[in-house]
Amino acid sequence: MELVEFAQRVVEANGDGEVHTVGAAVRDAQGRMFGGINLYHFTGGPCAELVALGHARAAGARDLTAIVAVGDTGRGVLAPCGRDRQVLLDYHPGIRVLVPAADGIRSVSITDLLPHAYVWGEQSAASDGALCSAAMQALHFHRSYLDAVRTGRKTTTVRFRDPVETGPVNMVFELDDEVVLSGVVTQITSKSVAELTEADAVADGFRDLAELQDRLRFHYPDIKSTDDATIVHFRLTR
User: Fold this and answer.
1) pTM of the entire structure?
2) Sorted alphabetically, which PROSITE patterns does this protein's record hold (predicted)?
3) Is-catalytic flag, 49?
């Protein structure tokens, strides 16, 4: 309950009801508590739990034993999202998570909270017997683009200061229930914002270049016509 109260104090003191709406707290083996608050953003801004993990690491904590998230406006304890569960399992497999239950708040091991978990990265034995792994890259989209991608109206995305590589990609759409589509980045080209064309706009799922320019300014308020933009060409694989 001390951990819950700590997380609640974090969100009550620092929440704004729009971007920062969830507080989290993590405890290490020495009993120290570290807080975090979420940073909502359509490109996949971190949940409060992940911020708390980063805070703990920055403060020198290594052996983390328990974590909890609390929503603002009296929403109480919140269960972690799927992404957070995977991160917790990958990096802190011994941690326990406080979750809401019919009879109150329960402490659950992360392995029980994420049964039959996905093992990220294809692992293969190298010639020297060492193991090497490669994680799938993710490309985050605003929720409004889901239908255009699914129907094939949108086959490119123009990005600014957002490194992307060719190859397999998980396309993540930031809805209330996160949607992930499997795809592949087939080509990456670069040109200045001023050099973008009507054809670029149509391939990106927009009516015309003016609409594309408007959306770029919406997503990247500090973008300038002289800045280089990256055009990411992709296709769905299923």
Assistant:
1) 0.53
2) CYT_DCMP_DEAMINASES_2 (PS51747)
3) yes
